[in-house]
Specification:
The chain is of the alpha+beta class and 164 residues long. Helices cover 16% and strands 36% of the residues. It contains three helices and nine strands, in the order ααββββββββαβ.
Length: 164
């Protein structure tokens, strides 16, 4: 081996270290939901993609089924996973223009429930009395809002309710 070959080998190694696999590699990471976070309903999946090549698209799979696709940053996808308390497997796959792809997987946990009670819907009749024992009328506004009085006619805050 002569001096030129050794010099060429050192120069090639330096170039590979500077622009080598780390710069050319496609990497994807799921930022949200965080590890250990349970999910319900409509959720936003946020991914971070690092690549020297342009990224053509990002695919989102939930439990192995394609749920959404994005073709440009920001890499945020919204999907409705439903209201069932269970584990979900979330996978994002980034596809670069040079044909490479990278994937990240996150499994979200179910919330531990010690006891579940299923009840049939029942009609409930309620009589509300004010501070002096008089019946009060309740407007739909007072029921759905955050009012502390039963109605504008009641002189004191709601103190008791009798259930029949």
């Amino acid at each position: 081996m002569n001096g030129r070959t050794l010099l060429l080998g050192v120069a090639a190694s330096a170039w590979l270290l500077a622009a080598g696999p780390a710069a050319a590699a496609l990497e994807v990471e799921i930022v949200s939901p965080r590890a250990g976070e349970a999910v319900f309903g409509e959720i936003e999946i946020v991914a971070e993609v690092r690549s020297a090549e342009p990224v053509e698209r990002l695919e989102l799979f939930v439990d192995g089924r394609l749920a959404a696709t994005a073709e440009s940053p920001p890499w945020r996808l919204v999907v409705d996973v439903g209201q069932e308390n269970r584990e979900y497997r979330i996978e994002v796959v980034a596809h670069a223009g040079d044909g490479t792809s990278a994937r990240a997987v996150r499994t979200t946990p179910a919330i531990r429930v010690d006891e579940t009670v299923d009840l049939d819907l029942q009609q409930l009749y309620v009589t509300v009395t004010g501070g002096r024992g008089r019946r009060c009328s309740i407007s739909s506004r007072a029921v759905s809002g955050s009012a502390t009085r039963a109605s504008p006619r009641a002189s004191s805050p709601l103190r008791a309710a009798t259930f029949h």
